[in-house]
Structure formats: C-alpha cells, structure tokens
Amino acid sequence: MTTTGSNERAEAVINLDAVRHNVCTVTAAVAGAEAMVVVKADAYGHGAIPVARAARDAGAPWLGVALPDEALALRDAGDEGRILAWLIVPGDPGIAACIERDIDLSAGASWAVEEIASAARAIGRRARVHLKIDTGLGRGGSSPTEWSDLLLQALSHGDTIEVVGIWSHLACADEPDHPANDEQLAAFQEALATAESLGVTPEVRHLSSSGAIITRPDMHFDLVRAGIIVYGVTPGPGIGPPWPSGLDFRPAMTVRARISHVKRVPAGHGASYGLSWRAERETSLALLPLGYADGLPRTTRGAQVMIAGNRFPVVGRIAMDQCIVDVGDAPIEAGADVIVFGSGGSGEPTAEEWAAWDDTIGYEIVTRMGARLPRRYVG
Ligand SMILES: Cc1ncc(COP(=O)(O)O)c(C=O)c1O
User: Fold this and answer.
1) CA distances from 370 to 95, 157, 228, 324 (A)
2) DSSP state, 241?
3) What is the mean pLDDT of the chain?
4) Any residues with Cβ below 6 Å from ligand 1, and which?
C-alpha cells in the first residue's frame, strides 16, 4: 500500500512527557524497589519503541514484554538495558535469540528450564532466568506442589542457568479488597522461603502490577511491573482517578479525527447498518471516519465524542471504517476536529469512559487502537 503519511483523517497522539512523568511517579511510589515498565503489545497500543525510550529516559532500569519477538525488537532499536520476556512456548526460536541478545527469560515449567538450559549450552552463555510460581492466577508458572522440583531442576543446570528472579502475577490487583491478594502474597512468600531453603537467592522478587503498585506497598518486593499506569489509565474503577494522594498518572493517548461529511436528516431517518437508531427529530449527522478497523469497539453503546468543546453521541452501529455522530443543530462542518478520547482535561471522553460504554477495561480500549491509526508523538 502506498501511503501519504497523512494524519488528517485520524491519529493517536501519544504524549511521551506523560509517559516519562508516569514512570517517575511509579519510581517514587515504590522507593526501595525498582520499576519494570511493561511495553508488551506495542506498549499497550502506544508504540513500544518510543515508549521504551521515554521510559529509559525517565530512569526505568527494566522493560517487560510478553513475547521474545517484542524483546528482540527493543534490542534491534538499540535498547541495551535489562529486559524480561515472560511468554515462551516449547520449541520457541525466541529462546535462543533472547539468550544471545542478553534478554532475561521466564520459566515456570520443567520443559522451559530444559529448553533454556540447552539453548544456553549451545550458545555458550549462561541464561538469566526468572522462575515463575503460580500463586493462584492459574496462568503460567509452576504450581506450588511442583515448585521445589523446578528450583532443583534449575539449580542442576547451574552452569547454563542463573536464577536471577522469582516472580508471580496477581489475579485481583485491580480489586484491592479481594481476599485473593493476601492469599497470593502468602503463597509467594512461601515459595520464596522454599527457594531460600534450597539456596536460591534471586536478585529480584516481583509480584506487583499496577493495582498493587498503588494499593499494596507490602507487595513491592525488589521490583514492580508497571503497565497501565505508565499510560495514565486506571487499573481498576476504585483505584483512580482521582488517584491516591501523591500519585498523579497522566493519560498518554489522545485519539482524534476529522469529520468527513455532515448532512441534515429529517425525523425518523436511520443511522448505520441495521438502522438500530432513528432520529427523534430533524438533526444533523456527522460522519466520523473511524471504525472498528481502527480499534473502536463495534459493540459500544452510548459512546460520546467531543467536537468544538461539546460532547455529542455516537449513534447507530460502529462500522469498519466509520461511525455517525448526532450533532443536533450545532454548526459543525466537514473538517471539524473530533476528540474521540483523551485525558479528559478539556471535558473530552476518556479511555475509561469508552471502556464503560463497551463493558470492558481501559487496557483494551488503548491497546486495540489499530495499526491503521497513525501514531504521532509529542513531548
Ligand atoms: C505478567 C504481567 N505483569 C505485569 C503486567 C502489567 O499489568 P498492569 O498493566 O496492570 O500494570 C501484565 C499485564 O497484563 C502482565 O501480564
């Protein structure tokens, strides 16, 4: 596809000052522990490379990603700091590639320890490994019953594996009062005690993601993994904004577009596929050239956007490339600037509001903004 590189139709504006500010806020909040900035999934839709650079500028000693390829892309872009990649599959060529490029790997199963050890042996370099214990989430990681076997297995590969981390992930970090948080903390502490009794003393122990970074200082250990708060979006409805005192996370993504067409329609006129909406009175419909191919959720109900300082409803179904805004009698013309969501500071909707309109979480709203939506970096 030949592109003009134009952002006239629509764009996601990423404020890297906000990213840097949020990284500094995390760093200050976890004083005593280090911060890992999670840049998986293209930095939650914000662009992994620019966000990683901003995070490093702000002093982040660690970056975290899910996939080896995501880590390798950071190395290709010149990042030389500590990176952890935590999602590998058997036979993953990313295992050897990560060891070669000095990227830490996670292992939570015996096959992973074996494959990392044999890749490290073939390369002639010791792999840095974070052993993962499943403390209750039910995703990756060793079950508590297999934990000491996993530790012993890793120890038996001491020539090829250096256990630098022990870690786990919370199921309910977004619900501070959920009893699972304390249960997982207790399970994690037990796993650490078992490791210590076997002589494994890792450089970093890590459990907290955003929700626990804010609400559970007792879970910070040596390292925290900060994702969504780096992007200024809430990890859970009760957590902020308003943020607890001393914390101020600023949204980094603004999605804006320009109206491509405005037309006057009579009462009873429908809008979009299925005609699920009809005008109650004569009104003006403005066409927003942004649809589910750009990342707007098709299942959204009751969404709003801001045009010329006022909010207007998105009406009818969101289509692949476009959706319709009922602007009533407002003097809106083709070319008008639309803020789909942003910081909320000027009254525009936020990612959290879009999440509520689609019965999802802010994470999904920012992460799903598609490749077709050009990113523009400011700050
Ligand atoms: C293992 C792991 N750690 C940390 C994070 C960051 O979580 P959050 O964005 O809530 O900070 C994630 C994100 O899903 C994750 O999968």
Assistant:
1) 28, 42, 18, 19
2) S
3) 97
4) 38, 86, 169, 209-210, 225-228, 235
Residue 58 corresponds to which tokens in the numbers above?
Answer: 């702000």
Alpha carbon distance 93, 223 (integer Å)? 28
Q: For residue 314, give its domain range.
A: 253-378
Q: Assess whether pLDDT exceeds 60 at residue 1.
A: no
pLDDT tens profile 35-73 = 999 999 999 999 999 999 999 999 999 999 999 999 999
**Does residue 273 carry a catalytic annotation?**
yes
Verify that 126 and 28 share a domain, yes or no.
Answer: yes
- 40 catalytic per annotation: yes
- Is the separation of the CB atoms in 234 and 250 below 8 Å? no
Which residue minimizes the CA distance to atom 9 of ligand 1? 227
Q: Single out the residue in 183, 199, 231 at which a domain terminates.
A: 231
Is residue 150 assigned to a domain?
yes
Helical segments of 66-218, H only? 68-76, 93-100, 110-123, 147-156, 179-197, 210-215
Q: Are strands 223-226 and 34-38 parallel, antiparallel or unpaired?
A: parallel
Largest CA distance in the chain: 77
